[in-house]
Known about the structure:
Helices cover 31% and strands 17% of the residues. It contains ten helices and 13 strands.
Amino acid sequence: MSQTTHSFSYVLNAAMFVAFSLSVASAEEPARVYNNHLKLLKDAKPLLADYPEFIQPIEEVRRYEAPLLVDDENANLDVRAWRFSYNARGIIEMPNRLRADKTAVIMVHPWGIDDGQGWKTPEPAGACDFCTPTKNHLAGRHTREVINPFLNQMRGHVSLVMYSLIAPADPIRKKLYRTFDHNPSAEERAEAKKQLAERLSSLPYKGQPLVEKLTLSSDRPVIDYFRQFPGLSANDHYNGKGFWNVPVPVTADVTVHPDDVLIFDQEGYEPLKNFLNKHGIRHVLLTGYATDMCFCRTTAGYENLSRDFNVFLVGDATLATFPANSSPRYATNAHISFASINHLITQVSWIKKQEK
């Protein structure tokens, strides 16, 4: 098959899928005609400019205003959002009106690392989460200053506040947090907290030092160099045996409430989708880490959720990993900007409870 034929086939299949999706949607509820009229905005202020220490504000030469997109009956949550379109030659902004009781706020991978709970980056060369203690502490401050206040603002207004974490379900976290099938008692939580502290304190958090001697060939030394000394290795050599076999807690930088729900990544996307559908969720406000990895590709990442829900990426409530830099601001800007091609971006200050 020629490249041209293959490309045409791909486009045709995509068009057929969209047509099928629209027919399914129309079968479930009446279709609505959306007039995609774009009005040019003048003197628009930079986007995501409230926390410039954590994300470089986004500026484009052309910005548009589009009509109301999500328009729930009896809406009580305003969420302004934007996306980028190469075809439109700029950024498109639009208002949205959501029902809060049909909305969940999800925080992806709030790992409790280097936060005082006991799980910490192994020395002298271990790697976890944002990969160094210094970078983890910066992410922890972002959680305290941006995400946790946002969660506290939304909790009690939206239907669900949720967190996703690595590893399969385990007895300790099943008693420490509410999960899909169990909401533990205060006594269970207190017992689990003690068990967690004991489990996390049982590790030495010591690994091996950097490799001191490498064996290099005369004709391919660069290949040999990186094969033996990669830029990121979080295996037993540097992290120590058993480091990843622990019940990773939600970071202490988040105020977890009893009704907040824990998502176990290893259970997969279908249980999460079913749980959200069971609770009538149609909209997801997505926060968490890291913009370039887990935020998009894990169980509760937007690549999964956007297939079944109206997803809004809270662009200043996420951080990308930032190798070779002291700040995540440019990396986060780049990855949020790329996501905006096919996803809606909002920001904390654009999410407002409607006044009665």
